[in-house]
């Protein structure tokens, strides 16, 4: 850092021993050590502050990129219905079933000999608005 060679360091030690004296040399070395420690502590604190500012700037840049990518994805993706739209029926349920469903129900009725099969057939006849909405959105049926 300061590029002090061995000969220069030897010269500093000789001058320090002559000027300070061998008796006061340990106290002078402790004082110099404290000063060096304080300078290192201050420079470390300064360096950590600079590193924190750099990290914050990088984080802000990453958040900006994330927002841009999120907006692009949201524009490209189709809009899904909100919870309110899913709760509201899409269209009123018809009062009478269609002729095709009557024919299929009539064909299934003679086959149903047990009460469980009859309940299953009657449950298949009535489709709730939620089931219709699920079919429109190509959603799987809810678990039992």
UniProtKB/TrEMBL annotation:
Bias type Low complexity, positions: 98-129
Subcellular location: Cell membrane; Membrane
Transmembrane feature ranges: 6-22
Transmembrane among keywords: yes
Pfam families: TatA_B_E
Highest taxon in the source lineage: Bacteria
Chain positions covered by the region annotation Disordered: 69-144
Classification via Gene3D superfamilies: 1.20.5.3310
UniProt KW keywords: Cell membrane, Membrane, Protein transport, Translocation, Transmembrane, Transmembrane helix, Transport
Membrane topology value: Single-pass membrane protein
InterPro entries the record matches: TatA/B/E, TatB
Annotated family: Belongs to the TatB family.
Biological function: Part of the twin-arginine translocation (Tat) system that transports large folded proteins containing a characteristic twin-arginine motif in their signal peptide across membranes. Together with TatC, TatB is part of a receptor directly interacting with Tat signal peptides. TatB may form an oligomeric binding site that transiently accommodates folded Tat precursor proteins before their translocation.
Subunit structure of this chain's protein: The Tat system comprises two distinct complexes: a TatABC complex, containing multiple copies of TatA, TatB and TatC subunits, and a separate TatA complex, containing only TatA subunits. Substrates initially bind to the TatABC complex, which probably triggers association of the separate TatA complex to form the active translocon.
Protein name: Sec-independent protein translocase protein TatB
Species of origin: Novosphingobium beihaiensis
Recorded name of the encoding gene: tatB
